[in-house]
Design brief:
The chain contains 5 helices and 11 strands; from the N terminus they run βββαβαβαβαβββββα. It has about 240 residues and is α/β, with parallel strands linked by helices.
């Protein structure tokens, strides 16, 4: 009999934010930013448990309106600065459940700063990492050709340029560039056993190309305004 892997969805939502103050609870077209990620998570069929890790009372009070979302703790101040690694936040949440005798096979990290996820994207990513027997997955997008790393250079102290991709022949034609990808931050799926090695991403990492949702990762006020325009124009409902 095949055992169905258990997956914990973690929505990290600390209260502090410098570029966009109180970002996770700031209203985007009438809804707190975190609402969009909550709705996406609740639409998933493969997330066994969804929880929010936050130090912010306003955020936790709002999340409390959704009985399906767990609030197992108030995140400690020591794990709530803008310098806190994502690994520490995930590890803290998993350890909390472990102390209650609850274990998970995979973690699905859903950052509120990527609010727009197309329907079924979460489940597609979870199923892909399981089917591929990978230890981790990231959502990716194709790198625009003008930013392809095979056309990228770095400068030394004398302003002399060298290729970022070391040892590669210079590719003169755009048509000959290999397809490359960049992480878009929308979804991470991680095998829980990686945490024991101090890792979020393992050696057997796969990507899932995110084609059908806007490439928005809200870090600045300019990013916020782009998201507002998408919603105002009806481009993402």
């Amino acid at each position: 009999m095949t055992t169905v892997p258990k997956v914990l969805g973690i929505i990290p939502a600390r209260g502090g934010s410098k570029a966009v103050p109180h970002k996770n609870m700031k209203h985007l077209e009438g809804r707190p930013l975190i609402w969009y990620t909550i709705v996406s998570a609740l639409a998933s069929c493969l997330l066994d448990t969804v929880m929010v890790s936050s130090d912010d009372s306003d955020t936790l009070n709002f999340v409390g309106l959704f009985p399906e979302i767990e609030i197992p703790f108030v995140r400690p101040t020591s794990l709530s600065s803008d310098q806190t690694p994502a690994f520490d936040v995930v590890h803290h949440a998993v350890e909390h459940y472990s102390k209650q005798g609850i274990s998970f096979d995979y973690i699905c990290l859903l950052q509120p700063t990527s609010p727009f996820r197309c329907k079924k994207l979460i489940d597609q990513c979870i199923q892909h990492v399981i089917d591929s027997k990978a230890d981790s997955l990231v959502t990716v997008r194709r790198t625009p050709q003008q930013y392809n790393p095979y056309w990228a250079f770095e400068a030394d102290q004398e302003s002399q340029l060298s290729q970022v991709v070391k040892g590669a022949a210079i590719i003169p034609r755009r048509q000959d560039l290999p397809v490359t990808y960049y992480r878009d931050g929308s979804i991470y799926v991680i095998k829980t056993s990686l945490l024991q090695q101090g890792l979020l991403l393992g050696e057997r990492m796969v990507g899932f190309e995110n084609k059908n949702s806007p490439d928005i990762n809200i870090d600045t006020q300019a990013d916020w305004e782009v998201a507002e325009k998408l919603l105002a124009n009806g481009e993402w409902i």
